[in-house]
Amino acid sequence: MKNYDVIIIGAGPAGIITGVTAKKQYPGKSVLIIREEEKGLVPCGIPYIFYKLNSVDKDAMGPKPFIDLGGDVVTDPVVDVNIKDKTLKVKSGADFSFDKLVFATGSKPVIASFIPGFELKNVFYIKKSYNYINNLFNELQDKKNIIIVGGGFIGAEVAEQLAMHSDKKVSLVESEDLCFSKAFSGELSEIATEQLKKSNVDVHTSTLVEKVLGENGIVTGVQLKGGNNIKADAVIFAIGYKPNTEIAKKAGLQINKVGAIVVDNYGRSSEKYICAVGDCSQTLGFLTGRCDYIMLASTATAEARVLGYNLFGIKIKNSFSGTIGVFSTEINGVAMAAAGLNEKNAPFANIEFITAKFSDVDRHPGTLEGTSPLTAKLYVSPSDGTILGGEVWGGKSSGEMINTVGLAIQKGVTVYELMSLQVGTHPLLTNAPTKPVIIKAAEVAISKIRTLNK
Amino acid sequence: MKNYDVIIIGAGPAGIITGVTAKKQYPGKSVLIIREEEKGLVPCGIPYIFYKLNSVDKDAMGPKPFIDLGGDVVTDPVVDVNIKDKTLKVKSGADFSFDKLVFATGSKPVIASFIPGFELKNVFYIKKSYNYINNLFNELQDKKNIIIVGGGFIGAEVAEQLAMHSDKKVSLVESEDLCFSKAFSGELSEIATEQLKKSNVDVHTSTLVEKVLGENGIVTGVQLKGGNNIKADAVIFAIGYKPNTEIAKKAGLQINKVGAIVVDNYGRSSEKYICAVGDCSQTLGFLTGRCDYIMLASTATAEARVLGYNLFGIKIKNSFSGTIGVFSTEINGVAMAAAGLNEKNAPFANIEFITAKFSDVDRHPGTLEGTSPLTAKLYVSPSDGTILGGEVWGGKSSGEMINTVGLAIQKGVTVYELMSLQVGTHPLLTNAPTKPVIIKAAEVAISKIRTLNK
Q1: What pTM did the predictor assign?
Q2: Would A315 be classed as within a structural domain?
Q3: pLDDT for the residue numbered A320
């Protein structure tokens, strides 16, 4: 039985970055990644396979940086883990033993088993699997009428991309009154839903799918609650993901109420020697410390860096406890991004906040060609002015501006501090120095707080 | 004699933002801005007047937001200030009295009076004046051979824009061995100089202008040290700016060794009731507290916001003392940005640092169309890992990414903290979550520090 100092189950972003970081920090340790498939995918790139990349292989991702550092990789699904003996078994029958084991098994799509007809042919999911997506890509080539069920990031992005094919009719069915409503505020969800409609997607909000319809075992459409039908050659469910933790559970690890492996701030599970990282591991809200559902590659890799460094003892303090959740997307050429608290997620945790917003354009003077609108919205504690959340939308730079907001949240920066924030501006790259949207939104927040205190 | 609670001299970004902020915070106070010209310009937009905007008026900026808040504006140059009487006189002869006076008189180009021939016709400067630039714009229409002297931001940007006219031959003469070398590190200056050459500018580095040549009082070229001549129909000197403080000096205010008005952290001068803000006021380095030469609209507006809030008493703490200097530009389609310390400015102040760099692309997967290279470089204290400076270059988002680095510098964030920084990533907007360039550069820095400590 071959022994490794560290075995990592899973070769997604969390697994690879844990492996890379561990090999860099502990070059003398033997590290093995065990994966299910030969090829991997950049998870957030999957929607773009269906139009912009028009290729599965252009979205491929592999463990090369890990192998270059001397890491080993085995392709053979893990079927069993024995915590007591510190061993595991793979599908082919081989056994491995380990000193440290890392679960980086990710998440998998929620199956629509509660909807009659879900088992028909041409019902699909967005599984983070090369082989599965490769098959889906091929299957969709000749499908004219496609229904996406679920208007979160992945569903909406896949719908937007498929709708760019002039020969396809794409419908999206969302149970909430707006798309993106789990991650974005009402205001931004509305903008995003509007852009989705403009990208030629037939969007049905506040709509439930009652039944998947078929003939001879093959999908022909969906029946909506209320009685209307939509015709389809393919139905793609994008109704959420859940932690992939069956093996961890079977092995006896503690699992939380959302199905994730319980870990501390350093990815250490209830069992000594066993860690977990990324989508399969527990996420706690940054303000509340409560269980959260956020599953993001960027969060997973942050956890993976912390875990890789600290596998054999805490060397680098995890400076930010809890997960903020920094989301971004682009629909119909409009970039939209959010971090932390907003009107949608704050009430669940009974958190007081005020909002403040400022709009301008992303270049200066605004007469420059290629100028896009740009808006920043801040969610602020009315007591001390701390920035609890933010949204930025409009031009492409929104995708990086939200990271300034993210850092501000993580460092507990207040709107008062933002008044003296020094920023860099340039006509061709940013909005004007006289009105940087994040700082101006902070100024609006200060006025609101002052009015409240009167 | 009309009295105002506040009089601001100057209607550039510093003057307008001081006025706007003051009127918002103290709506009951009467505020007057006195300016020299009817029309104003967005200062950093000036280079783009010469090609991209191809118009002076498209770069116009006015005090409308200030007037909308009830502010008054007078166009009439101030000729004298009497501190004791709290009065001032304008060119037309009128007098005003004030309770608070703010100097926001900006900066003016250094005149090439030390170079023979500097007074010839068709020798120009980049003056931040609508009338002057309007005339320059018209004068340059029929000029074929143009020489820019000085390869800092303004000179290089003007050269790049003029060189886009296919009928113009543009040469740039820089005394240092690279352009941009005051704000950028050697490495980034080299990249910037290379891009300038690629934009069809004939760049002469390590070259001094000995004499401006002319016939019948009109420029015909320049003579370089060493003997070579370059032919020219126009010569534009962009050899720096100095604080515009003659009136302040005459009035008896304390002026520092670089000619700027001495002020405290809140823009308050040596005289009670008199403040100064922006390019005409003292700048102190954020690490050293020593006099610095940084003149940036973005810094000026940050100072103006702080001053506007605190004109009648400190209401909002200035959270960041000293000026970091966040610069950005785009040459030949390559964005380049810098904040704080680098190899060029650190040795002056004898500051120890290590550098760490990471390169990737600005989209993921990198196979997406429109992907640009992206590099982050950090300047880090080897003792405690504090981020002292940074540079980001490549794709357009560099212009906003430097603001994340800027916030990190201002909040004293360490490279260790960046290991657990949560960022948002998206295929169409940012680089990959597995290797965010700023975080990866921080990782490289940690390894370097560890090696040093061995």
Answers
A1: 0.96
A2: no
A3: 78
The answer on B374 and B254 residing in a single domain is no
Nearest to B429 among A45, A396, A439 (CB): A396
Helix (H) or strand (E) holding A302: helix A297-310
Select the residue of B296, B305, B401 nearest A400 (Cβ to Cβ): B401
Per-residue pLDDT tens digits for A99-148:
999 999 999 999 999 999 999 999 999 999 999 999 999 999 999 999 99
Region B191-218 average pLDDT: 98
Range of the domain at B448: 334-453
| A356: in domain | yes
| Residues A164 and A202 reside in one and the same domain | yes
Going by the DSSP 8-state scheme, the letter that residue A338 receives in this structure is: E
- Complex-level ipTM: 0.95
Structural domains in chain B (count): 3
Report the CATH number at residue B166: 3.50.50.60
- DSSP string across A433-448: TT--HHHHHHHHHHHH
Based on C-alpha coordinates, what's the Rg of chain A? Answer: 23
Contacts of A213 (CB under 8 A, 6+ apart): A117, A219, A220, A221, A222, A223, A229
- Give the list of residues 6+ apart from residue A68 with CB closer than 8 angstroms, or none: none
Round the average pLDDT of chain A to a whole number and report it: 96
| Six token digits for residue B117 | 């021939």
The CA radius of gyration of chain B, in Å to the nearest whole number, is 23
B346 has a pLDDT exceeding 90: no
pLDDT of residue B28: 97
Whether B128 and B229 share a structural domain: yes
Low-confidence winner among A243-252, A346-355, B160-169 (lowest mean pLDDT): A346-355
Q: Are residues A137 and A97 in the same domain?
A: no
**Which of A20, A434, A444 to substitute to test the interface with B, most B CBs within 10 Å?**
A434
* Same domain (yes/no): B115, B234: yes
- The model's confidence at residue A287, banded by pLDDT at 50, 70 and 90, is confident
pLDDT of residue B14: 97
Partner B contacted by A404 (CB < 8 A): yes
Q: Mapping DSSP to helix (H, G, I), strand (E, B) and coil, where does residue B387 land?
A: strand
Using a 10 angstrom Cβ sphere, with 0-12 exposed, 13-18 middle and 19 or more buried, the burial of residue B257 is exposed
A44:B419 CB<8 A:
no
In the structure encoding, which two tokens stand for residue B301, read together? 């507006």
Provide the pLDDT confidence category of residue A36 given band limits of 50, 70 and 90. Answer: very high
Strands A373-380 and A387-394: antiparallel
Of the candidates B25, B8, B276, B316, the one whose C-alpha atom is nearest the C-alpha of residue A419 is B316
Question: Which two structure tokens, joined as six digits, stand for A381?
Answer: 């504690």
**Closest Cα in chain A, distance from residue B211 (Å):** 33
- Which of A187, A210, A239 is the last residue in one of the domains? A239
**Helices A398-410 and A437-453: angle between axes, nearest 10 degrees:** 50
Q: Is residue A82 in some structural domain?
A: yes
My answer on whether A338 and A412 are in the same domain is yes
CB-based contact, B422 to chain A, within 8 Å: yes
> Could you read off the pLDDT of B126-139 as tens digits, one per residue?
999 999 999 999 99
pLDDT for B383 equals 94
